[in-house]
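Quiz preparation item.
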């Protein structure tokens, strides 16, 4: 059986506010989104869901004590660009949409691998990395291109 990460669902304090942020970020809301929640189809195989905290915690049977994102939940979300200029542009789009820039764009050393990245926090505090990794190939849609012989 093959399976892949296909949906990331974020609990949000205010769906309309979160939708406005991600639309300013450049993503289009799915036409089949429910008024109480929202989905953005990022790629043909990747969806971002925005759901009120109370609804998400009830659905996952986590209780209803969560009203906002934890300050850091041990994960980051990421968007990759084709160049350092892409990273700069995406960070400026996020800034204009109301994100808090946590780490300005700059050169990075990822354990001996060079790169260029920045971090922002969305309106609910979720950490997003925007990165350019010259050792990773992306297609025109921003999807990873695996080397010949690799499997997903």
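Solution:
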């Amino acid at each position: 059986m093959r399976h892949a990460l296909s949906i990331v669902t974020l609990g949000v304090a205010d769906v309309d506010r979160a939708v406005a942020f991600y639309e300013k970020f450049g993503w289009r809301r799915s036409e089949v989104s429910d008024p109480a929640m929202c989905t953005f189809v990022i790629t043909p195989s990747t969806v971002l869901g925005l759901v009120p905290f109370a609804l998400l915690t009830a659905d996952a049977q986590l209780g209803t004590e969560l009203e906002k994102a934890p300050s850091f939940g041990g994960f980051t979300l990421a968007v990759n660009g084709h160049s350092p200029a892409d990273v700069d542009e995406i960070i400026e789009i996020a800034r204009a949409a109301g994100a808090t820039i946590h780490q300005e764009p700059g050169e990075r050393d990822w354990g001996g691998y060079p790169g260029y990245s920045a971090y922002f926090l969305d309106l609910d505090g979720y950490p997003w990395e925007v990165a350019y990794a010259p050792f990773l190939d992306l297609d025109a849609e921003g999807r990873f291109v695996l080397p010949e012989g690799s499997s997903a």
